[in-house]
Amino acid sequence: MTDTATETALSAKEKKLKEAYFTASQGQLIWQRFKRNKSALFGAWVLIILILSGIFAPFLTPYDPTISGRNEDYLNGAPQIPSFCDDNGCSLRPFIYGFERTRSIKTNFRWVTTVKTDLESRLYVQFFTKGVEYTYLKFNINLPGDALDFTVPGLTFDTHLFGVNDGFIHIFGTDSTGKDVYSRTLTAINTSLAVGTIGVFIAFVMALVIGGVAGYYGGMLDSVLQMITDTIKTIPSIPLFMALAAFIPAEWSAEARFLFISTVLGLIGWPTLARRIRTHLLTERGQEYVLAAQLCGASPAHIIRKHLLPSFTSYIIVDLVISFPYMVLSETALSFIGLGLKDPVNSLGVMLQNVTSTDVLLNYQWYFIPVFFFIALVLAFVFVGDGLRDAADPYGSNH
Q: Is 87 helix (H, G, I), strand (E, B) or coil?
Protein backbone atom coordinates (compact mmCIF):
# COMPACT_ATOMS: atom_id res chain seq x y z
CA MET A 1 0.00 0.00 0.00
CA THR A 2 1.39 3.40 -1.00
CA ASP A 3 1.76 6.38 1.32
CA THR A 4 -1.14 8.13 -0.43
CA ALA A 5 -3.44 5.14 0.10
CA THR A 6 -2.41 4.92 3.76
CA GLU A 7 -3.15 8.61 4.33
CA THR A 8 -6.52 8.21 2.61
CA ALA A 9 -7.41 5.25 4.85
CA LEU A 10 -6.36 7.16 7.98
CA SER A 11 -8.36 10.24 6.99
CA ALA A 12 -11.42 8.08 6.33
CA LYS A 13 -11.01 6.44 9.74
CA GLU A 14 -10.65 9.83 11.45
CA LYS A 15 -13.75 11.05 9.63
CA LYS A 16 -15.75 8.07 10.90
CA LEU A 17 -14.51 8.67 14.44
CA LYS A 18 -15.54 12.32 14.26
CA GLU A 19 -18.97 11.35 12.92
CA ALA A 20 -19.36 8.79 15.69
CA TYR A 21 -18.39 11.42 18.28
CA PHE A 22 -20.85 14.04 17.05
CA THR A 23 -23.70 11.53 16.66
CA ALA A 24 -23.10 9.72 19.96
CA SER A 25 -25.65 9.95 22.75
CA GLN A 26 -24.87 11.52 26.10
CA GLY A 27 -24.56 8.09 27.71
CA GLN A 28 -22.09 6.90 25.08
CA LEU A 29 -19.92 10.00 25.53
CA ILE A 30 -19.88 9.55 29.31
CA TRP A 31 -18.94 5.89 28.94
CA GLN A 32 -16.06 6.68 26.58
CA ARG A 33 -14.71 9.30 28.96
CA PHE A 34 -15.20 7.02 31.96
CA LYS A 35 -13.21 4.20 30.34
CA ARG A 36 -10.17 6.46 30.06
CA ASN A 37 -10.09 6.86 33.85
CA LYS A 38 -8.17 3.75 34.98
CA SER A 39 -8.77 4.22 38.71
CA ALA A 40 -12.51 4.64 38.17
CA LEU A 41 -12.61 1.57 35.93
CA PHE A 42 -10.73 -0.47 38.53
CA GLY A 43 -13.11 0.79 41.21
CA ALA A 44 -16.06 -0.23 39.06
CA TRP A 45 -14.77 -3.81 38.78
CA VAL A 46 -14.15 -3.98 42.52
CA LEU A 47 -17.62 -2.61 43.17
CA ILE A 48 -19.23 -5.14 40.81
CA ILE A 49 -17.39 -8.00 42.52
CA LEU A 50 -18.42 -6.81 46.00
CA ILE A 51 -22.04 -6.29 44.98
CA LEU A 52 -22.27 -9.74 43.38
CA SER A 53 -20.54 -11.26 46.43
CA GLY A 54 -23.17 -9.70 48.66
CA ILE A 55 -26.11 -10.70 46.50
CA PHE A 56 -24.96 -14.31 46.12
CA ALA A 57 -23.56 -14.56 49.66
CA PRO A 58 -25.78 -17.57 50.59
CA PHE A 59 -24.30 -19.55 47.68
CA LEU A 60 -20.70 -18.33 48.08
CA THR A 61 -20.59 -19.01 51.82
CA PRO A 62 -20.70 -22.49 53.35
CA TYR A 63 -22.71 -21.78 56.52
CA ASP A 64 -25.55 -19.80 57.99
CA PRO A 65 -24.12 -16.47 59.29
CA THR A 66 -26.55 -16.37 62.22
CA ILE A 67 -26.22 -18.09 65.55
CA SER A 68 -27.85 -21.23 64.14
CA GLY A 69 -24.80 -21.84 61.93
CA ARG A 70 -22.11 -21.47 64.58
CA ASN A 71 -19.38 -24.01 65.29
CA GLU A 72 -19.41 -24.61 69.04
CA ASP A 73 -16.10 -26.51 68.91
CA TYR A 74 -14.12 -23.69 67.26
CA LEU A 75 -14.74 -20.47 69.19
CA ASN A 76 -12.45 -17.58 68.24
CA GLY A 77 -10.81 -19.96 65.78
CA ALA A 78 -8.03 -18.77 63.50
CA PRO A 79 -8.52 -18.75 59.71
CA GLN A 80 -8.12 -22.15 58.05
CA ILE A 81 -6.22 -21.70 54.80
CA PRO A 82 -6.57 -24.69 52.43
CA SER A 83 -3.27 -26.10 51.17
CA PHE A 84 -2.06 -28.78 48.78
CA CYS A 85 1.13 -29.91 50.52
CA ASP A 86 2.40 -30.43 54.06
CA ASP A 87 4.83 -32.67 55.96
CA ASN A 88 2.63 -35.67 55.18
CA GLY A 89 2.85 -35.21 51.43
CA CYS A 90 0.94 -33.48 48.65
CA SER A 91 -2.59 -33.85 47.33
CA LEU A 92 -4.36 -32.85 44.15
CA ARG A 93 -7.28 -31.56 46.23
CA PRO A 94 -6.98 -28.68 48.71
CA PHE A 95 -7.42 -29.68 52.33
CA ILE A 96 -7.47 -28.39 55.88
CA TYR A 97 -6.92 -30.20 59.17
CA GLY A 98 -9.51 -31.21 61.68
CA PHE A 99 -9.45 -30.13 65.32
CA GLU A 100 -10.66 -31.29 68.68
CA ARG A 101 -11.50 -29.69 72.02
CA THR A 102 -9.63 -30.74 75.16
CA ARG A 103 -9.43 -29.63 78.77
CA SER A 104 -6.21 -28.00 79.99
CA ILE A 105 -4.88 -27.65 83.54
CA LYS A 106 -2.86 -24.58 82.49
CA THR A 107 -6.00 -22.72 81.48
CA ASN A 108 -7.97 -23.57 84.62
CA PHE A 109 -9.71 -26.52 82.95
CA ARG A 110 -11.25 -24.38 80.20
CA TRP A 111 -11.79 -25.82 76.75
CA VAL A 112 -8.82 -25.56 74.41
CA THR A 113 -9.02 -26.21 70.66
CA THR A 114 -6.10 -28.19 69.28
CA VAL A 115 -5.47 -28.82 65.58
CA LYS A 116 -4.62 -32.33 64.45
CA THR A 117 -1.95 -32.52 61.75
CA ASP A 118 -1.85 -36.22 60.93
CA LEU A 119 -2.77 -37.60 57.52
CA GLU A 120 -6.04 -39.13 58.72
CA SER A 121 -7.35 -35.80 60.04
CA ARG A 122 -7.28 -34.09 56.64
CA LEU A 123 -10.58 -32.55 55.56
CA TYR A 124 -10.67 -32.20 51.79
CA VAL A 125 -12.39 -29.17 50.31
CA GLN A 126 -15.24 -29.99 47.97
CA PHE A 127 -17.15 -27.73 45.63
CA PHE A 128 -20.90 -27.37 45.08
CA THR A 129 -21.74 -29.12 48.31
CA LYS A 130 -25.15 -29.48 49.92
CA GLY A 131 -25.84 -27.52 53.08
CA VAL A 132 -28.32 -25.28 54.83
CA GLU A 133 -31.20 -24.05 52.69
CA TYR A 134 -31.39 -20.41 51.64
CA THR A 135 -33.95 -18.38 49.73
CA TYR A 136 -33.57 -15.67 47.10
CA LEU A 137 -36.12 -12.96 46.28
CA LYS A 138 -37.92 -13.47 49.58
CA PHE A 139 -38.99 -10.48 51.65
CA ASN A 140 -40.48 -10.93 55.09
CA ILE A 141 -41.41 -7.94 57.24
CA ASN A 142 -42.77 -8.34 60.75
CA LEU A 143 -43.95 -4.99 62.06
CA PRO A 144 -45.96 -4.60 65.26
CA GLY A 145 -49.54 -5.54 64.52
CA ASP A 146 -50.91 -7.49 61.57
CA ALA A 147 -51.91 -4.80 59.06
CA LEU A 148 -48.44 -4.26 57.54
CA ASP A 149 -47.05 -7.80 57.85
CA PHE A 150 -46.43 -9.55 54.55
CA THR A 151 -44.19 -12.23 53.08
CA VAL A 152 -43.08 -12.64 49.46
CA PRO A 153 -42.18 -16.25 48.60
CA GLY A 154 -38.84 -16.82 46.90
CA LEU A 155 -36.58 -19.45 45.33
CA THR A 156 -35.06 -21.97 47.73
CA PHE A 157 -31.70 -23.74 47.18
CA ASP A 158 -29.30 -25.79 49.30
CA THR A 159 -26.13 -25.80 47.14
CA HIS A 160 -23.03 -23.92 48.36
CA LEU A 161 -19.85 -23.11 46.46
CA PHE A 162 -17.52 -25.04 48.75
CA GLY A 163 -17.39 -26.97 52.00
CA VAL A 164 -16.11 -30.14 53.64
CA ASN A 165 -17.95 -33.39 54.26
CA ASP A 166 -17.09 -33.95 57.91
CA GLY A 167 -16.55 -30.86 60.03
CA PHE A 168 -16.28 -27.19 59.20
CA ILE A 169 -14.07 -24.90 57.16
CA HIS A 170 -13.55 -21.29 58.25
CA ILE A 171 -11.28 -19.47 55.79
CA PHE A 172 -11.69 -16.19 57.73
CA GLY A 173 -11.85 -17.83 61.15
CA THR A 174 -14.70 -17.65 63.67
CA ASP A 175 -15.86 -15.14 66.27
CA SER A 176 -16.40 -15.57 70.00
CA THR A 177 -19.66 -17.46 69.45
CA GLY A 178 -18.28 -19.75 66.73
CA LYS A 179 -19.99 -18.01 63.78
CA ASP A 180 -18.11 -18.12 60.48
CA VAL A 181 -16.52 -14.70 59.80
CA TYR A 182 -16.42 -15.28 56.03
CA SER A 183 -20.16 -16.00 55.89
CA ARG A 184 -20.89 -13.04 58.11
CA THR A 185 -18.71 -10.67 56.04
CA LEU A 186 -20.36 -11.34 52.68
CA THR A 187 -23.81 -11.21 54.25
CA ALA A 188 -22.88 -7.94 55.97
CA ILE A 189 -21.89 -6.41 52.62
CA ASN A 190 -25.31 -7.29 51.23
CA THR A 191 -27.07 -5.82 54.27
CA SER A 192 -25.13 -2.54 54.23
CA LEU A 193 -25.69 -2.17 50.48
CA ALA A 194 -29.41 -2.85 50.95
CA VAL A 195 -29.61 -0.15 53.63
CA GLY A 196 -27.78 2.25 51.31
CA THR A 197 -30.04 1.39 48.36
CA ILE A 198 -33.26 1.98 50.28
CA GLY A 199 -31.90 5.18 51.80
CA VAL A 200 -30.66 6.53 48.47
CA PHE A 201 -33.96 5.66 46.75
CA ILE A 202 -36.03 7.51 49.36
CA ALA A 203 -33.68 10.49 49.28
CA PHE A 204 -33.69 10.47 45.46
CA VAL A 205 -37.49 10.55 45.18
CA MET A 206 -37.84 13.31 47.77
CA ALA A 207 -35.06 15.36 46.16
CA LEU A 208 -36.67 15.10 42.72
CA VAL A 209 -40.09 16.16 44.00
CA ILE A 210 -39.03 18.94 46.36
CA GLY A 211 -36.15 20.25 44.24
CA GLY A 212 -38.20 20.05 41.04
CA VAL A 213 -41.19 21.91 42.46
CA ALA A 214 -39.02 24.57 44.13
CA GLY A 215 -36.91 25.14 41.04
CA TYR A 216 -39.78 25.23 38.53
CA TYR A 217 -42.27 27.42 40.41
CA GLY A 218 -39.92 29.59 42.48
CA GLY A 219 -41.40 32.49 44.44
CA MET A 220 -43.05 31.94 47.82
CA LEU A 221 -43.29 28.17 47.32
CA ASP A 222 -39.55 28.01 46.72
CA SER A 223 -38.87 30.04 49.87
CA VAL A 224 -41.02 27.74 52.01
CA LEU A 225 -39.42 24.59 50.59
CA GLN A 226 -35.94 26.02 51.12
CA MET A 227 -36.79 26.75 54.75
CA ILE A 228 -37.81 23.10 55.15
CA THR A 229 -34.62 21.97 53.36
CA ASP A 230 -32.42 24.10 55.60
CA THR A 231 -34.20 22.77 58.68
CA ILE A 232 -33.64 19.14 57.67
CA LYS A 233 -30.02 19.85 56.75
CA THR A 234 -29.23 21.36 60.17
CA ILE A 235 -30.59 18.38 62.17
CA PRO A 236 -27.61 16.63 63.84
CA SER A 237 -27.73 12.96 62.90
CA ILE A 238 -26.16 11.40 66.02
CA PRO A 239 -28.51 13.05 68.59
CA LEU A 240 -31.41 12.26 66.27
CA PHE A 241 -30.55 8.57 66.18
CA MET A 242 -29.94 8.52 69.92
CA ALA A 243 -33.50 9.74 70.41
CA LEU A 244 -34.84 7.28 67.84
CA ALA A 245 -32.90 4.41 69.43
CA ALA A 246 -34.67 5.14 72.70
CA PHE A 247 -37.99 5.30 70.84
CA ILE A 248 -37.66 1.94 69.02
CA PRO A 249 -39.58 -0.74 70.96
CA ALA A 250 -37.50 -3.67 72.18
CA GLU A 251 -39.92 -6.16 70.61
CA TRP A 252 -39.29 -4.92 67.08
CA SER A 253 -37.84 -7.59 64.83
CA ALA A 254 -34.50 -7.26 63.07
CA GLU A 255 -36.32 -6.68 59.76
CA ALA A 256 -38.41 -3.86 61.22
CA ARG A 257 -35.33 -2.17 62.68
CA PHE A 258 -33.55 -2.57 59.33
CA LEU A 259 -36.44 -0.92 57.45
CA PHE A 260 -36.70 1.85 60.04
CA ILE A 261 -32.99 2.75 59.91
CA SER A 262 -33.03 2.72 56.09
CA THR A 263 -36.07 5.00 55.98
CA VAL A 264 -34.64 7.51 58.44
CA LEU A 265 -31.35 7.68 56.54
CA GLY A 266 -33.31 8.44 53.38
CA LEU A 267 -35.50 11.07 55.05
CA ILE A 268 -32.49 13.08 56.21
CA GLY A 269 -30.31 12.53 53.13
CA TRP A 270 -32.21 14.39 50.40
CA PRO A 271 -31.45 18.15 50.95
CA THR A 272 -28.12 18.27 49.05
CA LEU A 273 -29.47 16.72 45.85
CA ALA A 274 -32.69 18.76 46.14
CA ARG A 275 -30.68 21.97 46.21
CA ARG A 276 -28.73 20.98 43.11
CA ILE A 277 -31.89 20.10 41.21
CA ARG A 278 -33.52 23.38 42.30
CA THR A 279 -30.52 25.41 41.12
CA HIS A 280 -30.50 23.68 37.75
CA LEU A 281 -34.23 24.15 37.16
CA LEU A 282 -34.07 27.82 38.17
CA THR A 283 -31.46 28.28 35.44
CA GLU A 284 -33.21 26.21 32.78
CA ARG A 285 -36.88 27.15 33.26
CA GLY A 286 -36.49 30.34 31.19
CA GLN A 287 -34.97 28.57 28.18
CA GLU A 288 -36.76 28.59 24.84
CA TYR A 289 -37.52 24.84 24.78
CA VAL A 290 -39.34 25.20 28.11
CA LEU A 291 -41.34 28.15 26.82
CA ALA A 292 -42.20 26.20 23.68
CA ALA A 293 -43.48 23.29 25.77
CA GLN A 294 -45.58 25.68 27.86
CA LEU A 295 -47.10 27.25 24.73
CA CYS A 296 -47.98 23.76 23.49
CA GLY A 297 -50.04 23.22 26.63
CA ALA A 298 -47.71 20.83 28.45
CA SER A 299 -48.33 20.49 32.19
CA PRO A 300 -45.62 21.51 34.69
CA ALA A 301 -45.15 17.86 35.71
CA HIS A 302 -44.62 16.88 32.04
CA ILE A 303 -42.15 19.72 31.48
CA ILE A 304 -40.13 18.83 34.58
CA ARG A 305 -40.15 15.09 33.84
CA LYS A 306 -39.62 15.14 30.07
CA HIS A 307 -37.60 18.29 29.44
CA LEU A 308 -35.84 19.70 32.49
CA LEU A 309 -34.70 16.64 34.45
CA PRO A 310 -33.29 14.76 31.41
CA SER A 311 -30.89 17.65 30.80
CA PHE A 312 -29.59 17.04 34.32
CA THR A 313 -29.61 13.23 34.23
CA SER A 314 -25.85 12.70 34.20
CA TYR A 315 -25.35 14.84 37.29
CA ILE A 316 -28.19 13.10 39.11
CA ILE A 317 -26.61 9.71 38.41
CA VAL A 318 -23.25 10.96 39.64
CA ASP A 319 -24.83 12.33 42.81
CA LEU A 320 -26.60 9.04 43.47
CA VAL A 321 -23.38 7.05 43.11
CA ILE A 322 -21.53 9.44 45.41
CA SER A 323 -24.39 9.26 47.94
CA PHE A 324 -24.02 5.48 48.34
CA PRO A 325 -20.78 5.49 50.35
CA TYR A 326 -22.17 8.15 52.67
CA MET A 327 -25.26 6.02 53.32
CA VAL A 328 -23.07 2.97 53.96
CA LEU A 329 -20.82 5.04 56.23
CA SER A 330 -23.85 6.34 58.12
CA GLU A 331 -25.24 2.85 58.68
CA THR A 332 -21.82 1.54 59.70
CA ALA A 333 -21.18 4.41 62.11
CA LEU A 334 -24.60 4.14 63.72
CA SER A 335 -24.35 0.37 64.11
CA PHE A 336 -20.79 0.72 65.39
CA ILE A 337 -21.87 2.97 68.27
CA GLY A 338 -24.92 0.82 68.99
CA LEU A 339 -27.61 3.13 67.56
CA GLY A 340 -28.27 1.29 64.29
CA LEU A 341 -28.65 -2.36 63.42
CA LYS A 342 -27.91 -5.01 66.01
CA ASP A 343 -27.53 -8.77 66.19
CA PRO A 344 -28.83 -11.03 64.74
CA VAL A 345 -28.59 -8.70 61.70
CA ASN A 346 -25.21 -8.99 59.97
CA SER A 347 -24.00 -5.62 58.73
CA LEU A 348 -20.55 -4.08 58.43
CA GLY A 349 -21.29 -1.77 61.32
CA VAL A 350 -22.38 -4.64 63.55
CA MET A 351 -19.23 -6.59 62.71
CA LEU A 352 -16.97 -3.61 63.35
CA GLN A 353 -18.25 -3.50 66.91
CA ASN A 354 -16.15 -6.61 67.57
CA VAL A 355 -12.80 -4.91 66.86
CA THR A 356 -12.92 -2.33 69.65
CA SER A 357 -11.30 -4.40 72.40
CA THR A 358 -7.59 -4.77 73.09
CA ASP A 359 -7.98 -8.54 73.34
CA VAL A 360 -9.04 -8.68 69.67
CA LEU A 361 -6.09 -6.55 68.57
CA LEU A 362 -3.60 -8.75 70.40
CA ASN A 363 -5.04 -12.23 69.89
CA TYR A 364 -7.78 -12.33 67.24
CA GLN A 365 -6.53 -10.21 64.34
CA TRP A 366 -8.83 -11.94 61.83
CA TYR A 367 -11.69 -9.87 63.29
CA PHE A 368 -10.27 -7.01 61.20
CA ILE A 369 -10.95 -8.79 57.88
CA PRO A 370 -14.41 -7.13 57.49
CA VAL A 371 -12.68 -3.75 57.96
CA PHE A 372 -10.73 -4.27 54.72
CA PHE A 373 -13.92 -5.16 52.85
CA PHE A 374 -15.57 -2.04 54.24
CA ILE A 375 -12.64 0.15 53.12
CA ALA A 376 -12.65 -1.46 49.66
CA LEU A 377 -16.40 -0.91 49.29
CA VAL A 378 -16.25 2.78 50.23
CA LEU A 379 -13.16 3.49 48.11
CA ALA A 380 -14.73 1.72 45.11
CA PHE A 381 -17.80 3.94 45.37
CA VAL A 382 -15.59 7.04 45.71
CA PHE A 383 -13.47 6.16 42.66
CA VAL A 384 -16.52 5.37 40.54
CA GLY A 385 -18.27 8.54 41.67
CA ASP A 386 -15.24 10.70 40.90
CA GLY A 387 -14.86 9.03 37.50
CA LEU A 388 -18.52 9.60 36.62
CA ARG A 389 -18.34 13.20 37.78
CA ASP A 390 -15.36 13.88 35.53
CA ALA A 391 -16.92 12.00 32.62
CA ALA A 392 -20.23 13.86 32.93
CA ASP A 393 -18.57 17.29 33.02
CA PRO A 394 -18.80 18.67 29.46
CA TYR A 395 -16.22 21.34 30.30
CA GLY A 396 -13.58 18.97 31.62
CA SER A 397 -10.03 19.48 30.39
CA ASN A 398 -9.67 15.86 29.19
CA HIS A 399 -12.64 15.86 26.79
A: coil
pTM reported for the whole predicted model? 0.79
Q: Are 319 and 275 in contact (CB under 8 A)?
A: no
The answer to whether the peptide bond before residue 344 is cis (omega within 30 degrees of 0) is: yes
260 and 382 share one domain? yes
Q: Whole-angstrom Cα distance, residue 12 to residue 30?
A: 25
How far apart CA 51 and CA 307 sit, in angstroms, is 33
Q: Which residues pair with 100 in a beta bridge?
A: 114
Q: Residue 163 forms beta bridges with which residues?
A: 126
Higher pLDDT, 7 or 213: 213
Q: Where would I find the H helices in the chain?
A: 3-23, 26-35, 38-55, 57-60, 181-217, 219-233, 237-247, 254-267, 271-284, 288-295, 300-303, 313-336, 348-352, 358-363, 369-392
Collapsed DSSP state (helix, strand, coil) of residue 106 = coil
Query: What is d(CA 68, CA 252) in angstroms, rounded to the nearest whole number?
Result: 20
**Range with the lowest mean pLDDT among 104-108, 124-128, 142-146?**
142-146
d(CA 185, CA 54): 9
Beta strands 89-97 and 99-103, pairing class: unpaired
- Domain residue limits at 152: 73-177
Of 177, 210, 243, the residue at which a domain comes to its end is 177
Write the CATH number for 361.
1.10.3720.10
- Could you read off the pLDDT of 346-357 as tens digits, one per residue? 888 888 887 877
Pick from 96-110, 176-190, 201-215, 301-315: least confident: 96-110
Residue 290 CA to its chain's centroid (Å): 38
